[in-house]
Amino acid sequence: MQQVNIIANPHLATIFKSWAADWEKESQSGQKDMANKFHTVYTIASKLFIEGGEVELQFLNALLADCKQKCEMAIAMNEKVTASLNADDARAKAIIEKINTTAQDAAFVVRYLEEMLKPAK
Q1: What is the number of domains present in the chain?
Q2: Residue 5, Cα to own-chain centre: how many angstroms?
C-alpha cells in the first residue's frame, strides 16, 4: 500500500476528535456497529492529525469520501429535519445548526485533503 506523510494539523485533529466524541455517545461497548466503527476511524484520524506521520493512502481516500458525503447530504438532511420537526422549531433549529457545522467542518477537511493529495507538478 502507498504511504502518505501527514503533517500535524490541530484544526483537523479537533474536527475528527469532535466527530469521534459524537459517535462515542451512540456506540455500545463490545458491539461492532456503525457507531463504533465511525468512533474508531475518527479517533484514529484525530490522533494522526495530532501527531503527524505515515498513513495509507486508502485511509485518506476513505476520509475524503466520507467528508464529501457529509457535505452532499447536509441539504437533504436539513429539509428532512424541517419537515419532521415543524412543530418543534427550536429543536429543528438546533439540529440544523449541528448539521451545518458538521458540513462546514467536512468541507474544510475536503479542501485540505484534496490539496494534500493533489499530484505534485
Answers
A1: 1
A2: 20
Write out the residue range of the structural domain in which residue 91 sits.
3-117
30: left (phi over 0), alpha (psi -120 to 50) or beta: left
Residue 99: strand, helix, or coil: helix
CA-based R_g, the chain, Å: 16
Contacts of 17 (CB under 8 A, 6+ apart): 42, 43, 46
pLDDT tens, position by position, 89-120: 888 889 999 999 999 999 999 999 999 988 76
Report d(CA 55, CA 73) in Å as an integer: 27
